[in-house]
Structures are given as C-alpha cells and as structure tokens.
Fold this protein.
Amino acid sequence: MTGQIHSIQSLGAVDGPGVRYVVFLQGCPLRCVYCHNPDTWQPTGGETYTADALVQKALRFRPYWTNGGGVTVSGGEPLLQAAFVEELFAKLHEHGVHTALDTSGVGRLSAAERVLRHTDLVLCDLKFLTEEAYRAQCGASLRQVEQFLQLTALKGVPLWIRHVVVPGLTDSIDHLRRIKWRAERYPNLQKLEFLPFHKLCLEKYDRLGIPFPLRDTPAMDPAWLKCLTERL
C-alpha cells in the first residue's frame, strides 16, 4: 500500500492538539473558492511513500509530541486515499501515536468508517449551511458532509469543526451563530474553530496559472473576527 504525499510539516502547531507531524496528501475533489492549497488538487504528483516508511519518518519527531501531539493527515482530501490512511493510522496506533484526520468530510462512508476505527480526532470543515451554497462555492454536497459528521458521532470519535470566515461571504453574525448551532448538534464536538480568510495562497495560484476567485476580497481581520465570535 502506497500513498501520494504532497508535502510534510514536521512541527505543526495548528492541526490538532500539541505539536503535530502533518502529512499533506495529494488530490482533492473539491474546488472551494477560498482554497489555499490548489497545488494539492491533482491526484498525481508529490512523492510516493509506503505506510511503513512514513511511520518510521514520523517517529523521528516523537520527542516533540508532548501535550497530546502526534500525527495529522491532511490534504488535499485524505479520504481520497482512505485505504492508505487506514493502514498508516493502524500502524501509528501500534506505536501508541495519537492520530488526527483533517478532512472536508467528502468521501465514501464505508471507506471513512474504516479510517475512523484508527482515528483519535477528526478535524472537519463545515464550509457552508445549504446544499446550494456548498455546490456553488465548493462543488461538494452538504448532505455528504453531514453524513460523515453523523458517522463520527456514531463512532464516538472526538470532533473539531472548523469554519473559514470570509468578508462579505461568511462573516455575518447571523451566519456565524447558525454555524455554531449546527456544530453543537454533534455530541462528540470538542471544539469549534473560526478561521480568518487570508490570501497567502495568491503566489500558488499565479504560479499554477489558476484564477483565484476571491482575489479582490479583503483578508479577514483577526481582531474583528475575535469581536464577532465573542458575540456568539
């Protein structure tokens, strides 16, 4: 079993608890208007790893995994390579390593269920609140995301929900309150994170020759976002 790896961040601090070894997989079926990793869209490219090789590479950083740290698999969309992630997480569990899955929630539920057997934490994006908005802004299905979130609850896997706050698109106080209400319906929810939209990805889009849909949208001011979330 091999996986296509886009890149690795050895000491990540924002992809789950503690310090994380973050593996970004290649390939994503979504085309979110604010995506900051367009270089992960294509399923080909990157480097090919076996699960065993990746485990051994990750374990070199184990001394840094204090305060609940471990390995996070992100993307792209990791559920596109569900069988590889399943094997990788199972082997990490053999070494007692905490595993986190950073996903959009889009993928076959049967494959996702097998991954969740070896997953200690799910970080899932809740991008929009209607099927129409999901289709228009991401090319994805809200129903599919909700089915995945319900599966995490059924399996009792701890859940962090994330939502990107974009000026003029997802930054109204009413919208944020509805996101909070929707997230809190899941009994396994541990944390809700509102993430400020930024445009650090512009160089990637320019290099790849891909138009960035939100090029003219201002970045979200973190201080203003903090004011908004304090009103929820």
User: Anything to note?
Assistant: The mean pLDDT is 96. The two ends are 45 Å apart (CA to CA). The beta strands are 2-12, 20-25, 47-50, 70-74, 98-103, 121-125, 159-165, 189-196.
